[in-house]
# Entry
Amino acid sequence: MKKKLLLVTLIALIANGVSAQDKKKVTVPDEVKQAFAAKAPSVKNPEWEMEDGNFEAEYTEDGKETSMVFNAAGKHILTEKEIAVSELPANVAVDLAKRAAGKKIKEAARLDYADGTVMYEAECGDVDYIFDAKGNYKETEKEEKGEDDDDDKDDKKD
# Structure
């Protein structure tokens, strides 16, 4: 019985170690942590990732996936918050009926940039479609093979 328990414990430790290695350890500068804490004081343990050389804090707020992106100096770049597909501008559905014919919108998000610009993102399959605040198409971003559905998106503006 002790051997079985030891074996199960050993397997669990190895599995945990492997999954921990899959996550890249990000060292977040104090300036970035302080800037994040000032913008989201109620969020205590965000998950940090690198995104295009910037630091992205991912967390859940009001049941919605949310993230904030900061540069290394702690300057806030944008906040991305999950929204219901029905909250996308009306033009988006019309545009995607042509652009992504037959594909369903899996996820939608509102992108609020620090300069006040608002953009929207609609994910269909492994492609993110970016629209401006009025629902006008701006660009397409294809996710790299092996990426999670909600990781490493290039939140760019034209």
